[in-house]
Amino acid sequence: MTEFLAMGGYAAYVWGAYGVMALLLATECWHLRHRHRALRARLRRLARLPGLEEGT
Amino acid sequence: MAERGVQWFRFAAPARFYGLAGRLVPWLAGVAMLLFAFGVYLGLAVAPPDYQQGDSYRILYIHVPAAWMSMFLYLLMAAYAVIGLVWRIKVAQAMARAVAPTGALFTVLALWTGALWGKPTWGVFWVWDARLTSELILLFLYLGYMALHAAIDDRRRADDASALLALVGVVNVPIIYFSVRWWNTLHQGASIRVTEAPTMATIMFVTLLVMTLACWLYASAVILARARIEVLEREHHSAWAQAVLEKPE
Fold it and tell me: How many folded domains does chain B comprise?
């Protein structure tokens, strides 16, 4: 196990690459989910306002 | 658009797209995650160390698919932007904008993993050679596209202006691709060509294939999910969007 984690002496490079990939993909998914929920909430609030049109 | 005889356009109708994409995204994302798990297992645990580079070459199982995706997604973004510009298809305009952040992400990943592979292999994180520099320009094109779109308030003008930028930037993609042949670069040439057998062991080739497929499915999932948000935002006054908002999700 220790040998596997050491990656033949290239641990920082290999895990640095795989770790950053996992981090970037997870962040993108989380951000999309958050954005979708926020938009739905905003549009629902907008729909409840009678006779008001959004500026943009 | 809803007139009889124009069935094809129905697939491009925002309402239909929103529903269809919503059903596709979980499947694409699920299969992508399985393939990522399998590909990372193959790449880190099953494939043997390289006889020259040792274990550092395992970074290439991310680097190569990420670099391919960065170029492919740019062409996809430009294609959607032009379709949106010429035929004014709303879904295409939304798709063009939805591709950009994921394209930029894969470009960052290609540059980052390239630097981490370059240090133990070449002795440097970065050199200003043609391949690396043109890939960096690709990142600036993605960022420029996103910034330009965000800077213009009127959505129609933003779509048109950024579509032109995307189109002009296409010239960079063949420069990246052929840079290793046109110039003397520190970056090596391609090991996989469509016309020849790959010059690597089968297990390495299979791992690369699995990781590429995973990246491709992942990109499809997040781009469709982002395009749905984009379409909903653009169409929120229409009857279908109001109906969608009524339903809990």
Answer: 1
Residue A33 lies in a domain: yes
Task: State the ipTM, two decimals.
Answer: 0.90
Residues of the domain holding A23: 13-45
- 3-state class of B238 per DSSP? coil
| B196 token code pair | 């020849």
Measured CA to CA in angstroms, residue B246 lies from A36, A41, B57 at distances of 15, 11, 51
Bridge partners (DSSP) listed for residue B50: B54
- Tens of pLDDT, residue by residue over A1-56, are 888 999 999 999 999 999 999 999 999 999 999 999 999 999 999 888 776 555 54
A4 in contact with B, Cβ within 8 Å: yes
| CA separation for the pair A13, A10 (Å, rounded) | 5
Please give the pLDDT value at position B197. 72
The alpha-carbon gap from A38 to the nearest alpha carbon of chain B, in Å, equals: 10
Mutate which: B236, B240, B246, B247, vs A, most A CBs within 10 A: B236
B229 touching A (Cβ < 8 Å): yes
The neighbouring-strand residues paired with B54 are B50
Q: Which residues of chain B have pLDDT under 50?
A: 1-2, 6, 8, 11
- The answer for residues whose C-beta is within 8 angstroms of residue A6's C-beta and 6 or more apart is none
- With respect to residue A52, please indicate whether it lies within any of the assigned structural domains: no
A46/chain B closest Cα distance in angstroms: 10
Residue B41 covered by a domain: yes
The amino acid occupying position B108 is V
